Amino acid sequence: MNRLPTISVIIPTYNRKASVLRTLDSLESQTFPMDRLEVVVVDDGSTDDTSTIANRKYPFTFHYLHQKNQGATTARNHGAATSQAEILVFIDDDITVSPQTLEAFAEKCIQRTGILAMGTIKKRSSENASVYTPVVLTMSAHSLIARDDVEVHFVNCNSELLACRRSDFYEIGMFQDPTGGHGWPNWDDVDFGYRAHLKGYKLLGTSKAKAEHWDYSIASRTAACQRYYRTGRSAVWLFNRHPELQPLIPMLHDKTPPAWGQDPPQLIARKLARQVISSLVVLRGMVMLTSLLEKHYPSPVVLRRLYYLLHGANLFQGYRAGLREFEPVGIPK
């Protein structure tokens, strides 16, 4: 690296003191020089004792900010506006990063122009209380492998581990909430990646930037399915803002209503089949069957397939609920 830049790490948090402390601990072990690093934690109106971290001492410059509860999108932008460094690194409060991560991001963002940099994320869970967790961790959808300098499709933009130049962040227009505050998860990283793509930016993998995501939502099947439901529901708002994205997000490809006269026959057939498989009657039956198998015959091979179907069914039900809920405000079917 010819010139050593400065880095600001932005971490939004809400009621996760223990988790964000684990994230901060991982930043203490970075190979990147501590005197070139600042970390900004933005507390989005926590009601626990997260505020006590403000008094902690770290080898890097540390700032704790508190805002009223407005969501992670606003928290990230608030942190970026307060920070001072040339390179912004966004990570979530349930992420731990490997020692070389910030050095790798710094090198990539200085050497290349017009890019966003994203690393490898592996799912982990601090809780293994259910049969669901170890099985779902073997599913490919629960990790992101970034290869060095290989372009990643913008729909995979992920604010859990994302870096860019400060000037580029503002040129792209910062993070924006495509749901207008009505949904969570709110797809703000996909929205950011898409707007960056429209301005000619590339999303590149950075293989040396590695992180573990200690995902609370995979601690149980119920929690995971609720998240998939919310993800589908809030996607209605994303597609209202960017309808052209609808065919580009694989997880929702066959969850939206058939577009008669527009979708190819094969996709129409898939959507109709998904509608049957994801109906409430079938969904209840799958839940009952899965519960029985988890208790009496917890075969990972069988359960993996059932979990895949349950994830898809909850995405479908969430999306359809979003259509019903938001129809009065003019969101088209």
The major beta sheet can be summarized as: 9 strands, mixed
Strand content: 15-25%
Head-to-tail CA distance between termini? 51 Å
- Total number of helices: 10
3D shape: globular
User: Oligomeric state of the chains?
Assistant: single chain
Query: Based on helices, strands and strand pairing, what is the structural class?
Result: alpha/beta
Which segments are poorly predicted (pLDDT under 50) over 5 or more consecutive residues? none
Q: What share of the residues lie within helices?
A: 40-55%
The radius of gyration is: 21 Å
Average pLDDT over all residues: 92
Helix-strand string:
EHEEHEEHEHEEHHEHHHH
Record field, number of beta strands: 9
Features:
about 325 residues, alpha/beta, 9-stranded mixed β-sheet, globular
Description:
- There is one protein chain.
- The protein is an alpha/beta fold.
- It has ten helices and nine strands.
- It has helices spanning 17-27, 72-82, 101-111, 132-136, 166-172, 188-198, 221-241, 265-277, 280-296, 300-326; strands at residues 7-13, 37-44, 61-67, 87-91, 95-97, 115-124, 143-144, 161-165, 202-214.
- Strands 1, 2, 3, 4, 5, 6, 7, 8 and 9 form a nine-stranded mixed beta sheet that branches.
- α7 (221-241) crosses α10 and α9 (280-296) runs antiparallel to α10.
- It is globular and about 60 Å long.
- The chain starts with 6 loop residues before the first strand and ends in a 7-residue tail after the last helix.
